[in-house]
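Hi R.,

Here's the chain you asked about this morning:
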Amino acid sequence: MKKHQRDISPHLYHNIPQRTTAIATYSARLGFLAQFDQPYLNTQRTNPQDCAPTHVKLSASTSSAKMSTPSDLPPITVPMSSSSPPTPSTALHVLLTRPHAPHLSHLTRLTSTTAGLDRTLMLIQYTCHLLSSTLRTLLHRHLAILATRFAEKASTTLLPNERVIATFPAPPLPSALASLASSTAAMSALASDVRTAMRLVGLLQMWAWACAAYTEPDPDAVVRAVTWAQVLVNTAYYALEGPVYLAGKGVVRGWSEERKARWWRAASMCFGGHVGLEVVRLGRVWMLRQERVRALDNGGEEEKPGDGVFVTKEDKMRALREEERKWMTSVQINAAYAPLCVHWSMPGGFVSDTWYGLLGSWAASLYIRDAWRNSA
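And the predicted structure, written out as tokens:
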């Protein structure tokens, strides 16, 4: 309520229900009638400061009536509203107060690492490529339908061996499809460009991988040999991709288009070699896992030396199931990468744009799922 109504006791109008008229009639001894009318209160208002001022009407019943002070007035019992004021429902309020902060923190952790950001951009790249290819296919079909209808109508008026060339404005739907296809293709190219720029420091990662393979070698000889072979082919991949990428951006001068194409194909072959070696490593890991499973089937509990903690068979089987899940994810990713590596290594490629986007999106979604689980 407004501050200028100081001559009325606060308990007379505090918590007055909306759309309600409170009438207080006092005895003739007091000599006056106080009537409070609030016709301007709106049921949609929740803040008392938003309500219209209360209108006060005072009428004297006799000329000899004696005015009473606010403290002399008896309290008026007014029904209390049981409904609490609703929370503001603005878009900003909903955006900032809804319980999605954990998901936002999780997404921030995912994209704050180089690998997580690369996986996210990979998903954007191949998804936009798939969307662009699908939109272009729809556009071509729609234009073919329009051309067929036009030819059918024009054929009735043309003479034999007569041709007609017509130019007319594109309808709204084909224009929208063409615009959206171009936008998604540009977004895919941008994400690919950013990912390639991030791989310019890949040789440093290969150095760290070589140090880890040397200081902490795998106990199995086959896995150890495959790991070193992967370090070599990936080092060659980064050594080839970096210069040709910089040449395409004009940083390295004097490269012909033919030379750039050869280096791109050579880098793709190196990446294909990594995929092939990964298949060999996964096969060997599966064989070692089967041996561990057979050993667990013949044993019971096992004590960890130095800890005094017993690791049961169920615990070890649970760990093996988690390893199997990661193994299956790696198999699917490399199965999606294998045809793409062959496609990149060939001068003209052999995979259509739709399959290109589909295979890349499949691998990217598996990467994102695994990275999301690891960053929880």
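The longest helix spans residues 114-155.

Let me know if you need anything else.
M.
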